[in-house]
Amino acid sequence: MILLYINACVRQQSRTKILADYVVDKLNLPQIRQLDLNKCGLKYADETFLQKRSKLIASGKFDDPIFAYAKEFATADNIVIAAPYWDFSFPAVLKMYIENISVNKVVFDYSNSGDIISLCKAKNLYYITTKGGYNSDDYGYKYIEALCRQLYGIKNVHLIKAEGLDIRGNNVEKIMQQAKNEADKIIKQSNL
Predict the structure, then answer these.
(1) Spatial distance between the Cα atoms of 18 and 40, rounded to a whole number of angstroms
(2) Whole-structure pTM value
Protein backbone atom coordinates (compact mmCIF):
# COMPACT_ATOMS: atom_id res chain seq x y z
CA MET A 1 0.00 0.00 0.00
CA ILE A 2 1.33 3.39 -1.00
CA LEU A 3 0.89 6.41 1.27
CA LEU A 4 1.36 9.79 -0.41
CA TYR A 5 2.38 12.38 2.20
CA ILE A 6 1.86 15.90 0.82
CA ASN A 7 3.61 18.50 2.97
CA ALA A 8 2.40 22.08 2.41
CA CYS A 9 4.01 23.38 5.62
CA VAL A 10 6.26 26.38 5.13
CA ARG A 11 7.93 26.58 8.54
CA GLN A 12 10.58 24.03 9.49
CA GLN A 13 9.20 23.73 13.03
CA SER A 14 5.59 23.56 11.86
CA ARG A 15 3.13 22.19 14.41
CA THR A 16 1.06 20.95 11.48
CA LYS A 17 4.00 18.89 10.25
CA ILE A 18 4.60 17.50 13.74
CA LEU A 19 0.97 16.34 13.87
CA ALA A 20 1.11 15.00 10.29
CA ASP A 21 4.35 13.09 11.01
CA TYR A 22 2.56 11.49 13.95
CA VAL A 23 -0.34 10.44 11.71
CA VAL A 24 2.00 9.03 9.06
CA ASP A 25 3.84 7.01 11.72
CA LYS A 26 0.54 5.71 13.14
CA LEU A 27 -0.73 4.69 9.70
CA ASN A 28 2.34 2.44 9.53
CA LEU A 29 2.08 1.77 5.80
CA PRO A 30 4.92 -0.03 4.01
CA GLN A 31 5.59 2.50 1.27
CA ILE A 32 5.59 6.28 1.88
CA ARG A 33 6.15 8.86 -0.82
CA GLN A 34 6.79 12.23 0.78
CA LEU A 35 6.35 15.36 -1.29
CA ASP A 36 7.52 18.70 0.13
CA LEU A 37 5.55 21.18 -1.97
CA ASN A 38 7.92 24.02 -1.13
CA LYS A 39 10.85 22.18 -2.71
CA CYS A 40 9.39 20.49 -5.76
CA GLY A 41 9.30 23.42 -8.20
CA LEU A 42 5.60 23.43 -9.01
CA LYS A 43 4.56 25.38 -12.09
CA TYR A 44 1.83 28.01 -11.92
CA ALA A 45 -1.16 27.15 -14.06
CA ASP A 46 -0.67 30.12 -16.38
CA GLU A 47 -1.79 30.21 -20.01
CA THR A 48 1.42 28.67 -21.36
CA PHE A 49 1.25 25.80 -18.86
CA LEU A 50 -2.43 25.14 -19.59
CA GLN A 51 -1.92 25.23 -23.37
CA LYS A 52 0.93 22.73 -23.16
CA ARG A 53 -1.04 20.44 -20.86
CA SER A 54 -4.16 20.60 -23.07
CA LYS A 55 -2.15 19.70 -26.18
CA LEU A 56 -0.55 16.75 -24.41
CA ILE A 57 -3.94 15.52 -23.14
CA ALA A 58 -5.47 15.86 -26.62
CA SER A 59 -2.62 13.86 -28.16
CA GLY A 60 -2.68 11.24 -25.37
CA LYS A 61 0.95 11.88 -24.37
CA PHE A 62 0.66 11.19 -20.66
CA ASP A 63 4.33 10.23 -20.24
CA ASP A 64 5.33 13.90 -20.16
CA PRO A 65 6.73 15.03 -16.76
CA ILE A 66 3.93 17.61 -16.53
CA PHE A 67 1.65 14.72 -15.44
CA ALA A 68 3.97 13.18 -12.83
CA TYR A 69 2.26 14.66 -9.77
CA ALA A 70 -1.21 13.81 -11.09
CA LYS A 71 -0.21 10.20 -11.72
CA GLU A 72 1.35 9.94 -8.28
CA PHE A 73 -1.84 11.27 -6.67
CA ALA A 74 -4.13 9.02 -8.71
CA THR A 75 -2.21 5.85 -7.85
CA ALA A 76 -1.78 6.42 -4.09
CA ASP A 77 -3.72 4.07 -1.83
CA ASN A 78 -3.94 6.60 1.02
CA ILE A 79 -3.07 10.29 1.19
CA VAL A 80 -2.02 12.65 4.00
CA ILE A 81 -2.07 16.40 3.41
CA ALA A 82 -0.30 18.58 5.98
CA ALA A 83 -1.52 22.17 5.55
CA PRO A 84 -1.46 24.87 8.22
CA TYR A 85 -4.54 27.02 8.60
CA TRP A 86 -3.74 30.33 6.90
CA ASP A 87 -6.26 33.10 6.33
CA PHE A 88 -9.31 30.77 6.43
CA SER A 89 -7.62 28.33 4.04
CA PHE A 90 -4.12 26.93 3.42
CA PRO A 91 -0.79 28.06 1.92
CA ALA A 92 -0.82 28.98 -1.78
CA VAL A 93 1.60 26.19 -2.65
CA LEU A 94 -1.17 23.64 -1.96
CA LYS A 95 -3.46 25.38 -4.46
CA MET A 96 -0.65 25.25 -7.02
CA TYR A 97 -0.33 21.53 -6.38
CA ILE A 98 -4.07 21.00 -6.84
CA GLU A 99 -3.93 22.86 -10.14
CA ASN A 100 -1.09 20.58 -11.22
CA ILE A 101 -2.86 17.33 -10.28
CA SER A 102 -6.43 18.05 -11.37
CA VAL A 103 -5.92 16.58 -14.82
CA ASN A 104 -8.70 15.21 -16.99
CA LYS A 105 -7.90 11.65 -18.14
CA VAL A 106 -5.39 11.14 -15.29
CA VAL A 107 -7.17 11.94 -12.01
CA PHE A 108 -10.74 12.09 -13.33
CA ASP A 109 -12.65 11.81 -16.58
CA TYR A 110 -16.14 12.53 -17.90
CA SER A 111 -18.69 10.05 -19.17
CA ASN A 112 -20.59 10.67 -22.41
CA SER A 113 -23.42 12.10 -20.33
CA GLY A 114 -21.07 14.49 -18.47
CA ASP A 115 -20.84 12.57 -15.20
CA ILE A 116 -17.50 12.71 -13.41
CA ILE A 117 -15.59 9.44 -13.33
CA SER A 118 -12.86 9.28 -10.69
CA LEU A 119 -9.59 7.67 -11.66
CA CYS A 120 -8.08 7.87 -8.15
CA LYS A 121 -7.66 4.74 -6.10
CA ALA A 122 -7.11 6.26 -2.63
CA LYS A 123 -9.30 4.79 0.08
CA ASN A 124 -8.62 7.56 2.62
CA LEU A 125 -7.37 11.13 2.66
CA TYR A 126 -6.28 12.61 5.99
CA TYR A 127 -6.19 16.42 6.07
CA ILE A 128 -4.00 17.64 8.94
CA THR A 129 -4.05 21.26 10.08
CA THR A 130 -3.28 23.41 13.09
CA LYS A 131 -4.74 26.79 14.03
CA GLY A 132 -3.56 29.57 16.28
CA GLY A 133 -7.13 30.39 17.29
CA TYR A 134 -10.59 28.89 17.05
CA ASN A 135 -12.67 29.21 13.94
CA SER A 136 -15.52 27.02 12.79
CA ASP A 137 -15.06 27.99 9.14
CA ASP A 138 -12.22 26.09 7.56
CA TYR A 139 -12.62 26.78 3.88
CA GLY A 140 -9.34 25.00 3.11
CA TYR A 141 -10.58 21.68 4.46
CA LYS A 142 -14.03 22.15 2.94
CA TYR A 143 -12.43 22.80 -0.45
CA ILE A 144 -10.22 19.70 -0.23
CA GLU A 145 -13.17 17.62 0.97
CA ALA A 146 -15.33 18.78 -1.96
CA LEU A 147 -12.57 18.02 -4.48
CA CYS A 148 -12.03 14.58 -3.00
CA ARG A 149 -15.66 13.55 -2.86
CA GLN A 150 -16.93 15.16 -6.04
CA LEU A 151 -13.97 15.09 -8.45
CA TYR A 152 -11.38 12.64 -7.19
CA GLY A 153 -13.84 10.03 -5.87
CA ILE A 154 -12.18 9.75 -2.46
CA LYS A 155 -15.12 9.25 -0.12
CA ASN A 156 -13.26 8.87 3.18
CA VAL A 157 -11.92 12.35 3.94
CA HIS A 158 -10.78 12.85 7.53
CA LEU A 159 -10.00 16.14 9.29
CA ILE A 160 -7.42 16.05 12.07
CA LYS A 161 -6.74 19.42 13.69
CA ALA A 162 -5.30 21.18 16.70
CA GLU A 163 -6.83 24.58 17.53
CA GLY A 164 -6.12 27.45 19.91
CA LEU A 165 -2.36 26.98 19.81
CA ASP A 166 -1.52 30.71 19.90
CA ILE A 167 -4.02 31.79 22.56
CA ARG A 168 -2.28 33.05 25.68
CA GLY A 169 -2.65 30.64 28.57
CA ASN A 170 -3.46 27.58 26.44
CA ASN A 171 -1.37 24.49 27.01
CA VAL A 172 0.09 23.74 23.56
CA GLU A 173 1.41 20.31 24.53
CA LYS A 174 -1.99 19.28 25.88
CA ILE A 175 -3.79 20.53 22.75
CA MET A 176 -1.36 18.67 20.49
CA GLN A 177 -1.77 15.50 22.55
CA GLN A 178 -5.56 15.78 22.29
CA ALA A 179 -5.21 16.09 18.51
CA LYS A 180 -2.99 12.99 18.45
CA ASN A 181 -5.57 11.10 20.52
CA GLU A 182 -8.28 12.14 18.06
CA ALA A 183 -6.03 11.05 15.19
CA ASP A 184 -5.67 7.62 16.81
CA LYS A 185 -9.46 7.24 16.87
CA ILE A 186 -9.86 8.39 13.27
CA ILE A 187 -7.13 6.05 12.03
CA LYS A 188 -8.67 3.11 13.90
CA GLN A 189 -12.11 3.87 12.42
CA SER A 190 -10.79 4.34 8.87
CA ASN A 191 -10.16 0.60 8.54
CA LEU A 192 -7.06 0.68 6.37
Answers:
(1) 20
(2) 0.95
